[in-house]
Structure of Trypsin:
Amino acid sequence: ILIVLFAPAVYTAHYHKRIVGGKETTIEKFPYQAMVLCENFLFVALCGGAVLNKKTIITAAHCVADCSENDLVVIAGSSEYDTTHQHEVDSKTIHTDYQDDEIDNDIAIICLKSALQYSNRIQPIAVTDQIYPEGTNAVVTGWGRTNDNKVSSKLRYANVKLISNRHCRVMNPLVDDTQLCTNGGSYGPCKGDSGGPLAAHNKLVGIVSYGNINCSSKMVRMYANVYHFRNFIQDNMC
């Protein structure tokens, strides 16, 4: 699903759907990674997510806003793009200030009907309790399309760096405190990775949200700022 959100002179935003320029990895190295699928008779839409506890998955609001609980499934514990071993969804909670035609508050919580079983392939990630400075190393993970525009059958990761909102506004003047930026270039999230985790120091700091249509451009990549939403997350844990 490719959705144009806004088109100022210097920045055109599209929901992210892949890791571009990343490297293959295994779920054992990123056991908090989850896959969120919206399946109905019209299409299957792929997003990422992160395990917060045995029944709680965090993702982007735009990944679930137009999908009913009956059409949502979560897959955890797999390195492959594999639609077996699905976990049914009991409920979803979208941030009350999220709107389809806006880019703020792009965050949602999914509650599973049955608990995940922790193993070396399924583990929760802690929510950050601090704001990290510009230049902090971070890693973004997901499946989806790669440089050759094909869906990756393997989980992939890309190393990125955090950018301060002050510097980020030079390229994207609509940035606010609900959002987080990382550097652009040949590595980072792009078109199947929406909703996926951005981690720094083994803590969840961002949820993949949107970016420029040219995924290899030097334009910044945008995330929901997890630190800003920590009360929303705590209040809606399953």
Summary: The first helix runs from residue 61 to 64. The two ends are 28 Å apart (CA to CA).
